[in-house]
Write a structure and sequence with these properties.
- This protein is mainly alpha-helical.
- The chain has one domain.
- About 45% of the residues lie in helices and about 0% in strands.
- The chain has 5 helices and no strands.
- The protein is extended.
- Belongs to the ATPase F chain family.
Length: about 110
């Protein structure tokens, strides 16, 4: 699957209009139903190559739930603001930890 192309499993006659938040592949067994002897093969079916697709689907699910409804509330903007604050705190933590107030004992 190249950039901007439909997944190979997508069939417009079967699935209808394309939804970027939906996985069109064959569903796998949920982790809760995996037997102990099958854990190795179940983990082997997980690949790093599927991570960008999973992140894209998660982004589109968030868009459909919070940003694209007609009457959107304040929730997506608060989520973005809290996410930005957290991200910048994490990347600047090494500089911020030197500005702590220490109590020196004599």
């Amino acid at each position: 699957m190249g950039f901007g192309e439909y997944p190979a499993e997508y069939n417009p006659k079967v699935h209808g209009p394309f939804d970027p938040a939906r996985f069109y592949g064959k569903p796998d067994i949920p982790f809760g139903e995996v037997k102990l002897g099958e854990v190795g093969s179940w983990l082997g079916r997980r690949s790093i190559g599927g991570l960008p697709s999973a992140l894209s689907r998660a982004f589109w699910r968030w868009q459909h739930k919070y940003m694209l409804p007609k009457k959107t509330g304040i929730a997506p903007f608060c989520q973005l603001a809290i996410g930005a604050v957290t991200f910048f705190y994490v990347i600047n933590y090494s500089k911020l930890k030197h500005h702590r107030n220490h109590k020196y004992h004599w």
